[in-house]
Amino acid sequence: MITLLRQNRFFFIAYTLLFIAVGILQLVFTQEELIRWVNAHNTVEGDYFFQYATYLGDGVFFVGIILVFFISSRRNGLLALTSFLLSSGLSIFLKQVVFHGRPRPAMVFADSPWKYHVIEGLNIATINSFPSGHTISAFAVFTLFALLDDRKNRGWVFLIPAALVGYSRVYLFQHFAVDVFAGSLIGVLSSVVTGIVLTRAPFARRAG
């Protein structure tokens, strides 16, 4: 594990800084204050961009990546598939069992006088808020990209699309910041654990 962390230090240092920064925001501000701030800073361009950028955290996107990886390398395809199964399994278990029914912003603010912004025609979910499944998937996918990329000094770049997906979930009024915060950690750990376990497995090393 130490070797993996050291080799991918540019990615993990950047993620640690991001994780700390978002964590501090949640200590200083309430979840309501954070989502109100994000919601207030909406634009026409943002509405268009984020409703499509959020699909980078969709399971269909992850499956597509798995297929591409299998075509190029059986080993990489196996890594992606295992990361997908682990991250998706954790997401479903936490959302449907441990935190089942936890209200999303639309339900929390349903009777509030606050006139929050939502994109017209966008389907807004109301329950099973914690953690953010899209964020888990996005961070799992792009962590995997960072781990597999030979140019380790650009590992931090893969955090950008993952972070945009996380932000999009709050911007689109689908999740609170804490849902995204936890989702990012679960996604990163899913791919890290997958990488550590499978790279040590003899069958994984033989696959090519």
Structural description of this entry:
- With 208 residues, the chain is mainly α.
- The protein has one domain (2-206): Vanadium-containing Chloroperoxidase, domain 1, CATH 1.20.144.
- The chain has eleven helices and no strands.
- The protein has helices at residues 2-7, 9-28, 31-40, 44-53, 59-72, 74-98, 105-108, 133-148, 159-171, 177-200, 202-206.
- Helix 5 packs antiparallel against helix 6 (74-98), helix 8 (133-148) packs parallel to helix 10 and helix 9 runs antiparallel to helix 10.
- The longest helix is centred in the middle third of the chain and has 25 residues, at 74-98.
- The chain is globular.
- It starts with a helix and ends with a helix.
- Residues 202-208 have low confidence and may be disordered.
SSE arrangement:
Blueprint: H1 2-7, H2 9-28, H3 31-40, H4 44-53, H5 59-72, H6 74-98, H7 105-108, H8 133-148, H9 159-171, H10 177-200, H11 202-206
Cα separation of the termini: 22 Å
Mean pLDDT: 94
Element pattern in H and E: HHHHHHHHHHH
Q: Ranges with pLDDT <50 over ≥5 residues?
A: 202-208
Supply the CATH class: Mainly Alpha
Instruction: Tell me the radius of gyration.
Output: 18 Å
Assembly annotation: single chain
Large-scale geometry: globular
How would you sum up the major sheet? Answer: none
Strand content: under 5%
Total number of β-strand segments? 0
Return the domain count.
Answer: 1
Structural class: mainly alpha
In the CATH hierarchy, the architecture is Up-down Bundle
Helix content: over 70%
The total count of helices amounts to: 11
CATH topology value:
Vanadium-containing Chloroperoxidase, domain 1
